């Protein structure tokens, strides 16, 4: 290659490298402005691309023949049908442990059906309910108030579920929304109610944004020692992998280098 052509090619590569550095620097230093997050109180308004049923965790407690192996650990994960990783965490109940048997149980999943076949709630008949845990055999039953925390491997743009509190008729439900850095983006509180009517009347509490910025949500209630339950989780998200910004920014430089080698 003639010297002047070589120098010109190196100049182009240097220019592309500087441009790459500038683009990446802008990506790092440019402040992120969160898209507005809105409250959603109807499942149909989520625009869900899929629904996560809690029997997907592989353990469903039979209330007529409870098996200790069917209880869940304080934290666990499950993958949706479209490949979204979902992590769940339920902290231990606040205060001293219950020493009089039976203690507050670990989290569990049960299917809500009419007695005597199962546990009735005001979710829909046959719904699988993720439950934070309670002291069974007493009424009202002391329970783990949570919060019930759900984290997504990839941020979502909308999420929601129906929520109910055990052994309390009326209460307040709160949903806290966080970004990938665990910054609190929004909190929403609505009224909730519970019954054993199996009429699908449990309050729906969800959120939506214009872009996928929702990395974690926490459900909690106004009741300090009552268990919390949720049914199917409706999700709007896109987990298709996108090329790395570094790869995209550096592609022109790689092409130029290849051109110089073959010239």
Write structural notes for this entry.
With 263 residues, this protein is an alpha+beta fold. The protein has two domains: 3-28 and 244-262; 33-236. It has two helices and 14 strands. The protein has helices spanning 3-29, 245-262, and strands spanning 37-40, 50-52, 75-79, 85-89, 108-111, 128-131, 148-156, 158-165, 170-178, 184-193, 203-209, 214-221, 228-230, 233-236. The strands form two sheets. Strands 1, 2, 5, 6, 8, 11, 13 and 14 form an eight-stranded antiparallel β-sheet that branches. A hairpin with a 5-residue loop joins strand 9 and strand 10. The model is unreliable at 16-33, 244-249 and 253-257 (pLDDT under 50).
Question: What are its keywords?
Answer:
263 residues; alpha+beta; six-stranded antiparallel beta sheet; 17% helix; 32% strand
